[in-house]
Amino acid sequence: MQGKKTFKDEKELLFSLSAHVPEHNFYRRLKQQLDLSFLTELTRGYYGKCGQQSVDPVVFFKLCLVGYLENITSDRKLIEHCSLRLDLLYFLDYQLDEPLPWHSTVSRTRQLYPEALFESLFDRVFSLCVEKGMVRGDTQAVDSAPVKANASMDSLLLKQPLESVQQQEADKQRMLQKNSKPAQPITAPAHQLRKLEKHHENLRGTFTSLGSTHEKAQLVSNKTHYSPHDPDARISVKPGKARKLNYHCSMVVDTAKGFISHVRADFADGRDSQHLPSLVTQVQGRLRENGLLMQELLADTGYSNGSNYFMLRAAGHHRLDSRVRDVQARDSGLPL
User: Fold this and answer.
1) Does residue 5 fall inside a structural domain?
2) CATH classification at residue 286
3) What sequence ranges are listed for the domain Transposase InsH N-terminal (predicted)?
4) Are 270 and 222 within 8 A, CB to CB?
5) pTM here?
């Protein structure tokens, strides 16, 4: 006899969420190993003593972790995604019929906490992974990638002379009434601006000879232009890619288990080699706090320059061959 399924919405349902999440499920095992209860006391000072209850800080940071693991950058999509997954609801300590936090609450909570709090959480999780034997520490690999800013190249504005910006700052009330944003001053030295103008003149000549009229994408610079929507974004380009407003993300990974030992965001108008000394110093400090010693650092040729080689040699390091794509650095306690 042929069967036919008819859906009938239950008004009352006895349902055990933990019974429907398998023991081998990743988020169930992660929940058993990751104890974030210390965040309650760590974040207590950012809340008042009366009023409506906020989202649990532990839930907020678990949502951030899920967003990273599931590659979801939108808070709205993150909440929708979690509401459709039994294992994620169990990981967040929410029942099947319990509404998750509103997506705007997640965004406001992210703005509430300072950067130091996120770093404290990173250090605590790093220490937990060291205790579990997931971090060896002797070999670290560093690389970087541009992260696209939420701003368009078409929205770039020309920076104003410093005197003009000071005049605008003195008239803040007028700007607030017009709902305008203050301009950024030109901070580049005069000789750099002259060199940039000469380069732009050469480009204009090339455009004229080719009959092209699309000059704006080629004739902007971080020295003379800025984004009013995201002033911290910088114009950058990778070989074979279009110029965009980006951030510079550096990441250091322990090669034993592929665990991230350090991550940092910087302005996108700097070279990789400029960030290497501070990255090494920060990674060395975190490893020392956990009783580990970095003996070798792997990096591509973008991190190589004379200054970095000189500092590494001054610290007593050897086998610095520019033909290979790694830099060996033995921890001597000296700042790099």
Assistant:
1) no
2) 3.30.420
3) 16-111
4) no
5) 0.71
